[in-house]
Design a protein that fits this description.
This protein is mainly α. The chain is built from 16 helices and no strands. It is 73% helix and 0% strand. The radius of gyration is 20 Å and the shape is globular.
């Protein structure tokens, strides 16, 4: 299990999301006919959010099995998610204040109260600021939290299911994804509720959990030729003229990419990248994007200059966040280790 490339895939998923968001706002400021749609389709071939939730399903299932209790499992999740999120919230407030935005109002208070528990939103007063969102990437955090809670209270039961049972639940989650497409047409409120619930995205997480439980049968036994064959067929499908329906991404991607993701994590061999900045990149790249859009940088900089500044700033801030969070949470982690050892 230790010989894997999960670190590579975590960074890949973060970079894909960063490029997707960069692409959207760069070409709004500096429109180049034909290039926007072409770049978008290349970037969207392997959706980072699908990879993220799949990796989470696999690794969080492992974390649950390695926890002595549900309480210990949630302690580990809290230490992983919340300190970086709270630090990011403080940084975001400081950036907004330095850019002359009004942060002393009721809307910002509501935003702060929801943000610290992982619920992303943007106050009405800031809808016209920069990208139109304070941190548009953070909707995934609340979805992840919901999936962690569901897994904690259902894992022991689903682990005992037969393959037919896994297939039946998988089919229901597939229907949830397709049903979310239909519910999008029921107005803004319904659309937002669907967007924030875990069910449209649960299929990817569920496949990750499935592959962890059946890892000896599907993943850990070499050779991994099936992964390469599936990857080739997937690329041919994505380059073809026919695209299936689906929520967030098409349903073929929702089914195939999770298997490719976990398969490639072991087919690539033993590759580790430290420190793991993937979560911090998810947190901070939108803040950097807001600053660049606010100052109109994309309208005057070339694509290469814009990409260089965007990635350099995002990685730099993420590194600072990683080490600061590691330092600030050290006492909590020591206390947690001592309590777990008792």
């Amino acid at each position: 299990m230790n010989k894997n490339a999960f670190d590579v895939l975590r960074i890949f998923s973060a970079v894909q999301v960063m490029l997707l968001h960069f692409n959207a706002f760069f070409y709004q400021s500096a429109p180049i006919p034909g290039k926007h749609s072409a770049c978008r389709e290349i970037v969207r071939m392997f959706p980072g959010v699908v990879i993220l939730f799949t990796l989470s399903g696999f690794l969080i299932a492992a974390s649950y099995e390695n926890s002595s209790s549900v309480k210990e499992f949630f302690r580990k999740r809290i230490l992983r998610i919340y300190p970086p999120l709270w630090l990011c919230t403080i940084v975001n407030l400081l950036v907004l204040f330095c850019l002359g935005q009004d942060i002393f109002n009721k809307g910002m208070l509501i935003w702060l109260c929801t943000q610290i528990i992982g619920i992303a939103n943007t106050p009405a007063a800031l809808k016209g600021f920069a990208t139109g969102s304070i941190n548009g990437a953070l909707w995934t955090v609340f979805t992840e939290i919901q999936l962690y809670v569901v897994l904690a209270f259902t894992y022991r039961r689903v682990k005992k299911m037969s393959l037919w049972g896994w297939g039946a639940v998988g089919f229901l989650l597939l229907m949830c994804n397709l049903g979310a497409c239909y519910l999008q047409d029921f107005g803004h409120v319904i659309s937002k509720i669907v967007e924030r619930l875990f069910l449209p995205y649960a299929l990817w997480f569920y496949i990750g959990v499935f592959l962890y439980i059946y890892r000896e049968k599907f993943i850990l036994t070499p050779p991994h030729k099936w992964v390469l064959v599936l990857l080739l067929l997937f690329i041919l499908y994505k380059c073809g003229p026919i695209q299936a329906v689906g929520y967030y991404t098409d349903i073929v991607t929702s089914i195939c990419l999770p298997f490719i993701t976990i398969g490639m994590a072991y087919a690539l061999g033993d590759i580790h990248i430290k420190p793991d900045l993937s979560y911090h990149l998810f947190l901070y790249h939108w803040i950097v994007l807001n600053v660049l859009v606010h100052y109109g940088c994309f309208a005057v900089w070339s694509l290469a200059q814009s990409l260089a500044v965007f990635f350099t700033a995002s990685i730099g801030v993420s590194l600072l966040s990683y080490y600061l969070c590691a330092y600030l949470t050290k006492p909590w982690r020591r206390r947690f280790i001592r309590s777990s050892a008792r």
